[in-house]
Specification:
1284 residues, alpha+beta, 5-stranded antiparallel β-sheet, 16 strands, Pas domain s-box family protein, Tiny_macrocysts_regulators, transmembrane, membrane, transmembrane helix
Length: 1284
């Protein structure tokens, strides 16, 4: 048993030893790995340090610096140091790529900093948000000051009855614009920081005292009450504490090679340092630091920034702030470095006041302690205010005097440094202050003190000492209050945001439990809502909705009519193109038929003409016929498939049996019949097709020598077909096809008028719709002007007492705004009327008591016995006592020399006084003009004054009271007369103001009407331009038919002429062409030469359709025709050498030469009578090799060249018309874009402007106090009832 137990123990011990050894091996392995990793990391760090050292000691490119910054931020996580180096490169960027690199690194550092702060759970304020709120609040206060200025000017100008209506309306517009900006800033700040109490209080007072917006002030008061209750309940976080005035906050921007500057300092810093906030803003941070520390402060900051761990959060138990007087105030500070996306590298310092000094042997309150800073040798550099005030005199500055602490304290050098740090007792020697304090205050030469001394080593070997001491028997020396009680932040949480009840006016409370008071307030709130409605800036007014609907309808109608016009134009243009194609096909058909006739005639001649004379072989002619056959068939099919109107001639000729054909019978009889065009062409092509594949030998056997003779018999079917082809091809089919081509052209050109009329009707309709909608839209905009005019008319009937009251309220607000307590946002000094809006807890249940006002001008008037003296008293009272904030001072008072006892001393003084009274108070004409309207009264008064004065001087025995009574009667009579004239002139002044108002709004309505009509004129201009462009397109399309006819008939005219010439020789008689029975020589001279002359005109003075191919046409008429027509070099050479290079002289020369040859042969033929023209003579003309050479010239070269010219012109016409249509579409697209942009502008900008006008009207009516607005409404209702 024991052995087994021993074995178990031994086994367990072995297992444990094995595990321990295994763990030891693993630990050693991990330790070795860790050691290796540390060595590798140390090596990498060393390499990077060496690399950075080389960077700093060499002038590398900026990209290398960017690499260093990236490594610092990404690998070493030294964001502050990286950003510091990056900011030093801000002005060294020399390319766009460097700027992109800079932006990337800046964003990278910012994001890394945010991530590190979140991972370390570091609580920092949002610096960007704080700066944003502060900047907006400063802008808010600036706008309030500016708006108050404008409102005061508005009411002061309105108080003058001689004001200019346009000027006061412009001031009102500026007020509204500023108010809307204020509202936007207010909402933006509260959205960013909902617990910003200061801006709410400022908004309450501004709305109540300046703008008379009682409802808005009540809403803000409720918001403020809820906010105060929330702040009492909720525990404030660090961010909230820093925003109060109990803790100081300084945000400073740290820049390379620049002094650190303050970008934000709160009111606590301002009160502590004695500087105003605007004096601190954007100034160097060193202005708040003692000079001895300021000398090395930038180095301290840089070291602080480069120490990433220290820069995260550093708390200093004691620092010293230098006041504006040069004294120091001890505080404790918490410093954080942070990175702003906009401002870069920032320092944020939170400054707390020090309440007590606690050392081992030293316990004392700050207000009972004295602070000194000395250099290393003990000479005082700066001191606290209480030291300078108590020992150096109230106006003495320690920096001006060399005092050593060894001279102040007894045996200070005997104490050890540790003892001095913990606090020691010694005696203070007053002999150092003998030159500053009176001898009576220095009864004791020594006093017991407790002193501590701390030594601080600054950068660059600078050493300073801090001396703190307190006097044990402070009552023995005269003390002047020097505490900094306002900096004591150890108050309770309830006191932090509590309102000082002793400072609040009795009228300003947080509500009453009295139900009667609540009911009264509710009733008054209901009256407020009835009189002044709350303006909902998010909701679009109904009038603006109507305007928006009208704008949308207007633009939709314009767009619809524009698209209708575009559709008509495109459809018309497409139809013109279709007509153009039809005309082209009809003209091309005529040309191909002419070529087919000549080719077939040459084929027939091969049976009886020697091969040496023939220009083409039988097989070549068949191939040419095959080409023409397919083209004729294609064009005929297109023409047969075209659609025609039932009433048109084309429909008759194409659908009815209008084509007359002839056929010869076997016995030689000729029969005629009518058929349709389609059937006739099919017959013609069918008969042609029989000979296209026929063998030459078989052709000779079946046809033989074939000539059209008057008497023919025993005709085979093949010879009958030949007769059909030659006879009908030269007469009936040719004439019919020419007729169809002319009809196609006439019908295509006739559509121009129809298309123009259609587009004109659409354009006129669009113009009419535009004008009608414009005339409908104009009155819609007039409604807004009428509303604004009605509001302005309200201003004209506001009482003077109300104006005086409003100016007094503004004066009170300005005093509050400009007071030094304004930034603390205490409600001290605010009028009861302003404070009372915070009196209730329920929304819209506030009391609106009437404010206390000075006696009105009517009361002053009734207080005096003499009417004129009352006028003078009122005038003097208004000049001396009227409410003015001091922002606008435009009143004068130059009536001091006029005394009450000599009012009637002379006429000039009286006139001057009354003139000044009425000019200032009534805005009327001078008294001299009014006296002209009452000559009788004035003359009698002038006569009575000397007599009265003489009577007073001579009659010493009479009672003076009788004369005084007489004088008073005359004065009363004069005053009543003047009052009547003043009333008349006042009515006249009101009429003048009404005329000004009417003229002003008439001008505004005219301006809006002109804008709308101007916009409509642009639309109408587009419609007219579109019409003229379309008309131009239609006109040029119609002209193009003639151009195509001329260019397409040049080649067929040659082939027809040679074919008719051969038939003339064959039949030995003059041939007749066309329905007009035209001879060949007339045809050549009139038609063919006419085509050539017109073409020559086109080349010399090309139409707009040919302008882009003029040079090509000139080259085609020159020696380059062959090169431009043919591509094969052999064909080009043959073309250039044919007939001794006739084409090298130009195409037109070759054509003229051909016509000249035809004319010469015709003349030779016609020179002999038919009876003497034997067969030999006819054969000499028909079998002439020159004739066949010309025919080869025509078929091989001239027809292809003219076809090339025809295609060039067709393409040019098509491109030109397409270009014109594209031009129109571009203009239309620009117009549609213009409409869309105008619609967007109208819906956004114009609607916003009109919405602003509506809100402006509502705001400018709300600016009138509620009581006065209610009185005006009642007055207008009574006036309306009286009129009815």
């Amino acid at each position: 048993m024991r052995d087994s137990l021993v074995r178990k123990v031994e086994k367990s011990m072995e297992d444990k030893l094995f595990k321990i050894r295994k763990m030891q091996k693993q630990f050693n392995k991990k330790q070795n790995q860790t050691r290796n990793e540390m060595q590798i990391e140390a090596r990498n760090d060393l390499i990077l340090k060496i690399l950075f050292h080389m960077f700093h000691n060499a002038n590398y490119q900026i990209n290398t610096k960017f690499l260093e910054i990236f490594v610092l931020a990404e690998i070493y996580q030294k964001q502050y140091q990286a950003l510091y180096i990056l900011q030093s490169l801000k002005h060294k960027q020399n390319s766009a790529f460097n700027k992109k690199q800079y932006s990337y690194l800046n964003m990278l550092i910012f994001q890394k900093s945010r991530i590190n702060d979140q991972q370390s759970k570091r609580e920092l304020i949002d610096v960007d948000s704080t700066l944003f709120i502060d900047a907006n609040f400063q802008e808010y206060k600036r706008l309030i000051y500016e708006t108050t200025n404008l409102v005061e000017k508005f009411w002061q100008d309105l108080k003058k009855n001689d004001y200019q209506m346009r000027k006061i309306i412009n001031v009102g517009k500026l007020i509204v614009d500023n108010f809307l900006m204020l509202k936007e800033i207010y909402e933006c700040i509260l959205e960013e920081k909902p617990d910003y109490r200061e801006i709410v209080i400022l908004g309450i007072q501004f709305n109540q005292c300046v703008l008379n917006f009682e409802i808005e002030a009540i809403q803000q008061a409720n918001y403020l009450k809820n906010l105060d209750q929330k702040l009492k309940i909720t525990k404030l976080n660090q961010y909230g504490q820093h925003q109060t005035n109990e803790i100081g906050m300084v945000i400073a921007a740290f820049r390379p090679h620049k002094k650190t500057k303050i970008i934000l300092a709160n009111k606590f810093i301002s009160d502590l340092s004695g500087y105003e906030q605007k004096e601190i803003h954007k100034k160097e941070l060193n202005m708040l630091i003692p000079q001895v520390i300021a000398n090395v402060h930038e180095t301290l900051i840089k070291n602080f920034i480069f120490n990433e761990q220290q820069a995260i959060d550093t708390k200093l138990k004691r620092v010293w702030i230098k006041t504006c007087e040069g004294h120091i105030e001890p505080v404790q500070v918490s410093i954080n470095a942070c990175i702003s996306q906009k401002k870069g590298l920032l320092l944020v310092a939170f400054i707390d006041p020090i309440v007590q000094i606690k050392k081992k042997n030293f316990h004392c309150k700050v207000e009972d302690s004295y602070f000194l800073i000395t250099d290393e040798e003990g000479f005082i550099l700066c001191s606290s205010f209480n030291f300078a005030n108590d020992f150096m005199g109230s106006n003495s500055y320690i920096s001006d005097i060399k005092i050593n602490i060894d001279d102040m304290f007894h045996n200070l050098k005997t104490f050890k440094e540790d003892d001095l740090r913990n606090g020691v007792k010694t005696q203070m020697i007053f002999t150092f202050a003998s030159q500053f304090l009176p001898q009576s205050e220095l009864n004791q030469k020594k006093v017991d003190v407790i002193i501590t001394q701390g030594t601080h080593l600054l950068s660059e070997g600078v050493i300073i000492k801090e001396i703190i001491f307190s006097i044990e028997r402070a009552s023995e020396i005269k003390q002047i209050k020097h505490t900094i009680q306002d900096l004591d932040y150890e108050m309770g949480e309830s006191e932090t945001f509590a309102i000082d009840e002793d400072k609040i006016d009795p009228h300003f409370g947080y509500g009453s439990d009295s139900s009667a008071s609540s009911n009264s307030n509710s009733l008054k709130s209901s009256e407020l809502l009835q009189t002044k409605q709350i303006i909902d800036f998010q909701k679009i007014p109904q009038s603006i909705l109507n305007v928006r609907r009208a704008i949308i309808l207007f633009f939709m109608t314009l767009a619809a009519t524009s698209f209708a016009m575009l559709a008509v134009s495109i459809v018309s243009n497409d139809q013109f193109k279709a007509d153009q194609d039809q005309v082209q096909r009809s003209i091309y058909l005529v040309g191909q038929l002419a070529n087919m006739r000549l080719t077939f005639r040459l084929l027939v001649q091969t049976n009886y003409i020697d091969e040496d004379i023939q220009s083409y072989s039988f097989h070549e002619l068949q191939q040419m016929m095959q080409t023409y056959y397919y083209q004729i068939k294609l064009y005929a099919q297109y023409m047969s498939s075209d659609k025609y109107k039932d009433s048109s001639q084309l429909n008759y000729y194409m659908r009815q049996n209008a084509l007359q054909l002839s056929e010869i019978q076997q016995d030689g009889k000729i029969t005629t019949y009518n058929t349709t065009f389609t059937i006739g062409i099919q017959q013609y092509l069918t008969k042609i097709e029989n000979f296209m594949d026929m063998d030459q030998q078989l052709f000779k056997e079946r046809i033989g020598t074939f000539k059209l003779l008057p008497q023919m018999s025993n005709l085979t079917i093949y010879r009958q077909n030949v007769w059909f082809l030659i006879h009908n091809g030269n007469t009936e089919i040719r004439n019919f096809c020419l007729l169809l081509a002319d009809l196609y052209m006439e019908e295509g050109q006739s559509k121009e008028a129809n298309y123009n009329m259609t587009v004109l009707i659409i354009s006129v309709s669009c113009i009419g719709v535009t004008l009608i909608i414009s005339l409908i839209f104009i009155p819609v905009t007039f409604a807004l002007d009428n509303d604004e005019k009605e509001i302005v008319s309200f201003w004209m009937i506001i009482r003077d007492e109300t104006k005086e009251e409003v100016l007094n309220n503004i004066s009170e607000f300005v005093k509050f705004f400009q007071s030094e307590n304004m930034d603390k946002m205490n409600l001290r000094g605010v009028k009861p009327k302003t404070k009372e809006i915070l009196d209730q807890s329920v929304i819209m249940a506030r009391s609106l008591n009437q404010p206390k006002t000075r006696p009105s001008s009517l009361q002053v008037f009734n207080q005096n016995n003499n009417h004129m003296r009352s006028k003078l008293s009122q005038h003097r009272f208004e000049h001396n006592q009227r409410g003015s904030s001091g922002i606008i001072d435009q009143f004068d008072n130059d009536d001091e020399e006029i005394m009450n006892n000599n009012i009637l001393k002379n006429k000039k003084q009286l006139a001057a006084v009354v003139n000044r009274i009425m000019m200032n108070n009534r805005g009327l004409q001078p008294l001299d003009e009014m006296m002209n309207d009452a000559n009788d009264v004035s003359r009698s008064y002038q006569d009575s004054i000397p007599n009265t004065m003489n009577t007073i001087q001579k009659s010493s025995k009479l009672d003076l009271s009788v004369y005084a009574s007489t004088l008073n009667d005359k004065t009363t009579y004069l005053n009543e007369t003047i009052d009547d004239m003043v009333q008349q002139k006042s009515e006249q002044s009101g009429e003048d103001l009404q005329k000004q108002l009417d003229n002003l709004f008439f001008y505004e309505k005219t301006k809006k009407s002109l804008i709308i009509l101007g916009f409509s004129t642009i639309i109408i201009g587009f419609y007219l331009g579109s019409y003229f462009i379309c008309a131009n397109i239609f006109s040029q399309s119609a002209e193009s038919f003639g151009f195509q006819k001329v260019t397409s008939r040049r080649g067929p005219c040659l082939s027809t002429s040679f074919n008719v010439l051969i038939e003339t020789f064959t039949e030995n008689k003059t041939q007749i062409l066309g329905y007009s029975n035209q001879r060949l020589d007339d045809y050549v001279r009139a038609d063919c030469s006419g085509f050539e002359s017109k073409y020559l005109d086109y080349v010399k003075q090309p139409p707009s359709q040919f302008s882009n191919i003029q040079n090509s046409l000139i080259r085609m008429d020159d020696m380059y025709a062959c090169e431009m027509t043919f591509k094969d070099k052999t064909v080009i050479q043959n073309c250039q050498k044919f007939m001794n290079g006739i084409l090298m002289s130009g195409t037109r020369s070759a054509i003229q030469s051909s016509y000249l040859f035809i004319t010469h042969d015709l003349i030779s033929f016609q020179a002999r009578r038919a009876a003497i023209r034997d067969q030999q003579f006819l054969d000499s003309l028909e079998f002439n090799d020159v004739l066949y050479s010309y025919m080869k010239l025509v078929l091989d070269f001239l027809i292809p060249i003219t076809d090339k010219i025809r295609l060039m012109i067709d393409d040019s016409i098509t491109e030109y018309l397409n270009f014109k249509m594209q031009q129109y579409i571009i203009i239309f697209s620009v117009f549609i874009v213009f409409l869309m942009v105008s619609l967007i502008i109208a819906l956004k900008v114009v609607i916003r402007i009109l919405k602003r006008v509506v809100f402006r009207s509502r705001i400018l009516i709300k600016i009138i106090p509620t009581s006065e607005l209610k009185r005006i409404n009642q007055t207008l209702k009574l006036s309306k009832k009286e009129k009815n």
